[in-house]
Design brief:
This protein has about 700 residues and is an alpha+beta fold. The protein contains 11 helices and 39 strands.
Length: about 700
């Protein structure tokens, strides 16, 4: 009895000490309303729906109060500034993109290290001195304006470029005379999810109608239109090429064949991998012709050979195949299979020098094979390790191209590839001021709840001891037919150097094993994705990589939804959680910006059957009172018009109102930043410094910063 009493006293003293060190956080008070929405007879309270406003007078006080509490918490972490300084040191190295040809010139981007945005250069031949083509750092004083595309006219007289302000998906386009580098007066606005497809002295592009004032970052994006813009003319004179008033959700993506003969239009409805293909014979100024007029698969035109199209598709081939479609006999029974489906998934295809360069996914890493125009296998392109390859851009007339190879411990390395000789030579190596050979990469496979085998990459410092006590960060995405592949992150070195195990799981919902893998994690099967993630955590614990008190999880966008869902379902399994720019309200996501496009992936609360499964996992609606949820740092940004930030706002308010006080529940709201693309270097460093500080502090780890 005396021993038990002594232990009890010791326990009380220990908890008093912990509370003294980490007093309960006083969260800002968030107003609650009596808003209730009815879904097929089910009443769903939505007390924080007012946070969906874009009125600064209403929203800004709440945002400022939340950021103040978060900043106070983070600034008290003793090594936060040291982490930021360490990351700044790591980030300070030259970074290049693969070059691409523009006539006799080569174009590439370069960042000297700490430039807010990468600068684009042009040079004549590979040995000439590069000249600045466009420097996005001069477009704003704080790096908040980023480049959102670079496009060259077929005669190389002009180039156009897109910009994004504050990370928004809204793009503006400008035109520059390539020889003189003098901008024209061209200015395109209200374009979104569109490039520029040059034809003669103008280009095709997609745009939406101008939204109402104040609704720019919130209003639903529907009724997209395809236009042709002629250089040195006002946008008001642009020619309408295509619209569909009967299908408000149709989106149009345009491309022009290298021989300038065809306008090729991809028509999509939502984020589904199914699309239609239309084309227009530009030489004869024909009407738009529907080549693929039913949503039976995903179709991508690779190139044309006279009046025949090389098309990559998953129609009847979940892992993709390449077919040749004769425009004179376009019916499906006349399609010729050039490269059939295999157990490995086709990720991308380029046509150069009458050869098809095909990148495959094998267990989520890249393999590259080369075929002739008739589909005869010629040879493999040997890669330096297990990793991810990108590039091989160019026109069919090109005999050389470039590609970039990277992996978790392999910084991006650029190779020049001779299509004729099948020879790769090192073109540019990333010179880092630190050694990545100290880290090991391993791929494992684990069973999910239903027995499905799931691949996962593990990265850690050599000499790791499997004692079940290693701090671990588990990352995943699991959706929208997107594969998670090996990639290099300079910021991640700060974690690895401090003994953190980095794990990346390849969940269902992605494209790692083709369309069947994607479908196994969408709509009513979305729970498979959460089960896969939970099983990854259980595997890491079972195999003694870590334990629940040392395990953190992270995901962004659809991955933010993932993190929110699994900490609701298994709060005991994780110590720290980072849901970034997440889709947290599964009942109202389709009401904002481009959210309606995700209905093909998730379903919609407007349909009874789909409401029934959405409500079961919606992160916002499954938070329970008094539960010891992990320490949560939610991150979002004010210019995110992809996943409207109100998702994170409402989720944070609900979590703060209901969760126990055991662990912090904070939200970090960035300004002049969007969904992630184009984020400046300084803001990226600050964000990572805050995330890592929160992670180390709540896992009880002292970072190694040397």
């Amino acid at each position: 009895m005396k021993i038990r009493l002594t232990l009890l006293i010791s326990f009380i003293i220990l908890n008093i000490a912990i509370l003294a060190q980490n007093p309960p956080i006083k969260y800002p008070e968030t107003k609650k309303t009596d808003q209730v929405d009815s879904y097929f007879g089910t009443q769903i309270p939505d007390p924080y729906q007012w946070l969906e406003t874009t009125d600064p007078a209403v929203l800004n006080p709440w945002v400022e109060a939340q950021n103040k509490v978060t900043e106070e918490y983070l600034s008290a972490i003793p090594y936060r500034d040291k982490i930021k300084n360490y990351l700044t040191k790591l980030w300070n190295y030259e970074r290049y993109s693969s070059p691409f040809k523009v006539g006799d010139y080569y174009v590439f981007s370069k960042n000297d290290g700490l430039q807010e945005q990468s600068v684009y250069y042009i040079q004549k031949g590979l040995d000439a001195t590069p000249e600045v083509l466009i420097d996005p750092n001069k477009l704003s004083s704080d790096g908040s304006v980023s480049l959102a595309g670079l496009y060259f006219s077929n005669d190389n007289n002009y180039f156009s470029y897109g910009i994004s302000k504050g990370g928004s998906d809204w793009n503006e386009f400008f035109v520059v005379d390539l020889e003189s580098k003098i901008p024209t007066e061209d200015h395109i606005v209200w374009s979104k999810f569109s490039g520029n497809a040059w034809y003669k002295d103008g280009f095709f592009y997609g745009r939406y109608d101008e939204p109402k004032p104040g609704e720019e970052l919130k209003a639903t994006n529907e009724f997209k239109k395809l236009y042709y813009h002629k250089v040195c003319s006002p946008q008001s004179d642009d020619i309408l090429i295509l619209e569909d008033k009967d299908h408000p959700k149709y989106g149009f993506g345009a491309g022009v064949s290298d021989d300038q003969k065809y306008l090729i239009i991809s028509v999509s409805e939502g984020s589904s991998s199914n699309n239609l293909i239309y084309y227009k014979d530009l030489e004869n100024n024909s009407e738009i012709i529907k080549l693929i007029d039913k949503f039976t698969g995903d179709y991508s035109v690779i190139d044309n050979k006279d009046d025949k199209f090389y098309v990559e598709t998953n129609d009847g081939a979940p892992n993709n195949k390449i077919v040749l479609i004769d425009l004179k006999n376009p019916s499906k029974e006349n399609w010729k299979t050039i490269i059939p489906e295999t157990k490995e998934v086709i990720k991308s295809v380029s046509r150069l020098n009458n050869k098809l360069i095909v990148t495959y996914l094998k267990d989520a890493y890249s393999q590259v094979k080369v075929f002739d125009d008739n589909g005869k296998f010629l040879y493999n392109i040997e890669l330096p390790a297990i990793g991810n390859v990108s590039g091989f851009s160019g026109k069919n007339e090109d005999t050389e191209t470039f590609y970039t190879f990277t992996s978790f411990n392999f910084p991006p390395t650029i190779y020049k590839y001779s299509v004729i000789d099948n020879k790769s030579e090192l073109f540019r190596k990333t010179n880092l001021p630190f050694d990545t050979d100290n880290f090991e990469v391993k791929q494992v496979f684990y069973p999910s709840k239903d027995g499905t085998k799931i691949p996962m990459f593990l990265v850690y410092k050599k000499g790791l001891v499997l004692d079940g006590n290693n701090p671990t960060l588990l990352y995943a995405y699991g959706g929208f037919n997107i594969a998670m592949q090996p990639s290099f992150s300079v910021a991640r070195l700060a974690l690895l150097n401090s003994g953190v195990v980095y794990a990346m799981a390849n969940l269902r919902g992605g494209s790692e094993y083709g369309e069947d893998w994607h479908k196994a994690g969408m709509l009513e099967k979305k729970q498979n994705v959460f089960d896969d993630f939970i099983s990854a955590a259980e595997f890491l614990i079972k195999e003694k990589y870590t334990n629940p008190q040392k395990l953190a999880i992270q995901g962004g966008s659809n991955g933010g939804l993932l993190v929110g869902a699994v900490i609701n379902q298994r709060p005991d399994l994780f110590k720290v959680a980072f849901p970034a720019v997440g889709v947290m309200d599964m009942l109202r996501f389709h009401k904002f910006t481009i959210g309606w496009a995700w209905v093909t992936e998730y379903g919609s609360s407007d349909t009874k059957e789909q409401f029934d499964y959405l409500i079961k996992y919606s992160p916002l609606h499954n938070i329970k009172k008094g539960v010891d949820y992990p320490a949560v740092l939610i991150t979002t940004a004010d210019h995110d018009d992809r996943v409207f930030p109100a998702h994170s706002f409402k989720y944070a308010a609900e979590l703060q109102n209901n969760a126990s006080d055991k662990n912090p529940k904070l939200i970090r709201i960035e300004t002049k930043v969007g969904h992630g693309a184009g984020t400046s270097t300084s803001k990226s460093i600050e964000l990572n410094a805050d995330i890592f500080s929160f992670l180390f502090y709540n896992l009880g780890v002292t970072p190694v910063l040397d």
